[in-house]
Batch of 2 targets.
Target 1
Amino acid sequence: MTGPITQEINDAQQHEFIMTIQKALGKSSGPALPELFGTAPNDLDTRLNAYINKSQPDRMALLDLFIEQAQLLNLAVRPVENVSRAGLAIQEFIEQTQPEWGTQKSVIAWHHPLIEQLNLGKNLADDITLFTTRSSSAPDSKERAQIRSQLINSYIGISAADFCVAQSATLVLRTRPHQPRAVSLVPSIHVAVITLDQIIENLTELYFRLKWDPEEQKLGLTNCMTFISGPSKTGDIELVMVHGAHGPRQMIVYVITG
Amino acid sequence: MSEIKTEFYKRNAAKAIKDPVLQHALSDVQNRLGPATALAYKNLPEGMALRQKAHEIRQFAINHLDILLETLVKKIRDRGGTVYFARDAADATSYCLKVAKENQIKMVVKGKSMVTEEIGLNKILEANQIEVNETDLGEYIIQLAGETPSHIIAPAIHKTRKEVAQLFTQKLGIPYCEDPPVLTQAARKTLRKKFLAADMGLSGCNLACAETGHITTVSNEGNIRMSTTMPKVHMAFMGMERVVARLEDHDALFRLLSRGAAAQNMAGYVSYIGGPRTEDQLDGPDQFHLVILDNGRSRILADPEFREILLCIRCAACLNVCPAYGKIGGHSYGYPYSGPIGAVITPLFVGVNRAKDLCCGEPLCGACKEACPVDIDLPRMLLGLRAKLAEGDPKWGVTQANSMEKIAFQIWSLIIRNRRVYDLALKTGSLIQKLLPKKNGMITTMPFIFKGWTQSRDIKPLARSSFLTQWKNRENKP
């Protein structure tokens, strides 16, 4: 979009900008990068191991903490034994709820291994349409427009998550192919499905694992990582709390404990 | 550039104090948010000490700002994002306009952003036939009303539900209703259409992370996620100081920001954005632009006395506890930044003389320092600005606000250092004060340069004889 000449001007402007900062700071160069961004701690493996291999009672305690914190945010948490129970519960939920805009009952779900296992398509009533966000490896504008329109017309969006931070009841979602961000945003109700081992204690654990766990490093933060702590809300009129400002007005997390 | 009305501080403050609706709204905000934030800090596992840690994190970032910005932009460009370094407001707005024109943008949706208020972006886009939709409910309300924000995070806090109801009936054509959920739903419905139709989304940036190469946006409503996900172009604006080095730095800062802003454990939505949609992804913008703005910040950075103000993360906690803000409200400050943060940063941005009343109007009580999530010593800098006004400072282009004042204090200093002269002055004073109007034994009006002292209170007359004289007389008595 920017031609070579514009690029040169931009580079010159950046150089001048950074030089102004260096002059203001009264320095010419800074410390080496590892010092700035931190080096791997000595007890890295021990800490990672403790984070990843929590005992079952510890995991259940984190689930309790998550439920307690979620309550404060109007975020419903439903522990279920296994994935098929989760599927049934979600199906029942869909049948009992009504769309916010229009009358057509459409639901959109991520193309994701855990969500596939819910087997939602099988037993849904005839008046309910289920869209799945499976796409080609490089979806063109037509394909994207189609999924966008399905998304806009759906009143429930079903997603998975990467982590769930118990201490603040925060879901962490990273962007991947087949998993549009808008599923957790545009529909009136956001349903998320996670497994017990995805619940972590706090932000300290989250950032540590994202930064140092080799498995997490492979993916990185992606070009969009989102934290979601409860349904959309506002207090802009006389500080009165109202749920459903622009994002989902209702949010439910199913936790598979088995 | 945003319109500067700092010269009218006193006039607007006097008007605000006489507005009973505003007074009620302000005390409501302060009574609810101020103590709630203090409690939220206390309940942190690390306690209040986390604020000092956050201070150090921000200080470290500012000390290495050059390298952090270069690291940040390299990572964003590697992901296909475009970064533009803007010297000033005009530079930033013309870049935005250029990108908008290249992409034939007709309509933009905007997340709440103080820095776009600072550069006066909306007016410029609108002047170029681009429809601008503020989408934060508070910002939307004041945009419909044609006003400016009066609070950094609750911009329409000066409006009652009655006023919002009248506004929505008039502008959105909905039946009159004062119920906040109904009003919110009306805005939700109207703005949903805008989100889905807009071809460009604008946002600010709360805190970038240099190490990973992401900006972050924070909201409770989800409007910023909408603005940065649905339109095909996303442009984010950040003040150049809004970056930290390490990912784990966000741990303390986001917990403190959420508590400082709204006494929450965690804001509803936090997004890390590091580039445009990749070809295998289904949504997200095709273009991601980041504008990094100086606009007077490097000048502040160069002065060790005021560098600390760049640590600010714009949470508005200082507004919620400030006795001055609590009486005069945000509009009196005459610039987008109000309260104690505004009283320090606005004079540094627009000129200390031009905004002198802002730093002189704050009471130096220290409440803002205690409420600040990153423990910024705002009172110290308020005093620093006043010292510049008293002495003048060519480096900041400050002229002495009142040269007579300095002479008067020099004379006073001579008088009080000489006992005999001082006693003589007291005697003269006690004679002169007999001529002054009095009520209930108090002087009601002082003449000349002293009249300010009796403008809003009466003053006690000088005693017939000084304490020392009385003491001596006592001792001499048998």
Target 2
Amino acid sequence: MVSFLVTAPILVPLATALLTALYAGRPRAQQAMSLAGALLLLASALALAIQVQGGEAVRLTLGGWAVPFAIELVADRIGAAMTLVAAVMGVAALVFQLSDADPAPLSPALYPLVHALLAGVGGAFLTADLFNLYVWLEVMLIASLGLLAHGTAKRHLEATLKYFVLNVFGTLLILMSVAFLYAVTGHLNYSAIERASSAIDPTFLLPFVAALTVALLIKCGAFPLFAWLPAAYHTLPAPILALFAALTTKVAVYALLRLLGGVFFRAPAALFEALGWIAVATMLAGVMGAAYHWDMRRILAFHIVSQIGYMLLGIALATPTGDLGTIFYVIHHILVKANLFLIAAIVFRLTGSYDLRRIGGLYAAKPWISVLFLVPALSLVGIPPLSGFWAKFILVRESLALGHGVWAAAALLVGFLTLYSMTKIWSEAFWKDHPREDWRPAEDARLTPALAVTCGLAALTLVLGAWPEPFVRYARVAAEVLRAGGGS
Amino acid sequence: MIWAVALGAAALVSAGVYLALLRDVLRSVIGLSLIGAGANLVVLGAGRVASTVPAIVPGGSQTISGAVANPLPQALVLTAIVIGFSLTCFSIAVALAVQQTMRVADSDLLISAEPPPASNGYPPVLDEEP
């Protein structure tokens, strides 16, 4: 029976989405139900993670077929860890929504869409079937389009359209490459594809694997096809923005890690070499884009792009330690990035704008919020005692060990340039005086839920930074299992 | 037969890419749905087009004898068609809403979420309720 636990991170949010949709007319009940569903998801993800901790992956084959033909759900260490972090972010976003710091406008569709998004994320993390991966990515896409189109102002429609066009192109490319890989290997199950592809010339398989890689890179927001991300994210309200920042691109990174690390690891080295240079270009393009902007949301959205570059770098290194770096980086990044967006919303609530030229004076007025901002901001940069340092340290050291000096140098340079953006936010929003003489921080702000969420996430960042050892050990075993076990 | 499927997919994808690259928003979303139709044909072709006999296991036996159509790509393509149809409807609705609210159909003129730099080179303030 324990194997049915692996369906919970999909079924719980789906059921919650249905229930909240049924209670569309009663906002209070809907909100309570939505929070309860998110907590249940967190509990089931936690149970799954504890189950997997012992070493054995939890597997479930659906439909009564034998293994290579049945649709398989697998929670191994990486999948379970990612599901757990996604569930944490779901709870964080829904609790943050209770505050009045830039919450999403309430409408009957809001909670069903959030839970549908979580269901898609859970499915993508736990499936061991290539076509199912496509389906779950589509579920995520549909839910996120609904959330983007939730606002009806001009900028929301425009963002929805821009987000739609490149993302749909990405999913269609995934569908086509899945079809080609099925045509060549005769399988859709990850481990079956891995076994079947061992008998196929890797060079013959390369075009199809490369097409799948490009498609997933579009969904990651990698250079040069990241334009959809900074075009759309800043139009979202804060809790939804944090959820997007935490999950949508990271699902594609996870899929890329799983497929290139565990299924198609025999692909020619040229593919990984190309991925490494794409990673470098992604890091640089993101950080440069961020340097131009003055709106906190736009700065942070461009930093998602640059951080995606680091995660891709770990995959491109194509060693267990590189994969370990990516796993650690993804988990660190989800906690830190979502937290920065949420803190930006608190700053917005207190000062009245997201634009750094219109705000200031928060350090004098609310010193604790400044400290709260510094934890994720310095962690994003990679300052030593924080989680980002360990994530970058693993990747840079492994790049140097493999002789990729330029990649390591780019990673360090981009870390330095990230410091520029974070210093800009620090000095403009916190350090300098508010441009209006008579400005006082908003007194009537209802920030308790927002502060609880952001302090909680900052505490997780501190724990990850102060005691990285157990997490690194967990991720190391996960990375080794990924390579040895053929993906699932 | 497989060549007909391949040619059909190629024609749909190239027509779709041509339309999707146009700056008219409605044409580009219709182009994307044409690419989707091409992708569906690719999925169908991936299972090899050989037989038209449905894959039904006769009563009392465990396996199929003789050449039958591969049922798996049919199941896959059915899923993909449903998803593609819903996304096409959604995207046309969004494209029409964009045209109606902004009074432009050119994607180069969609600048309310991403305004161009002000005259001093700085990004303009997104002065709005978020």
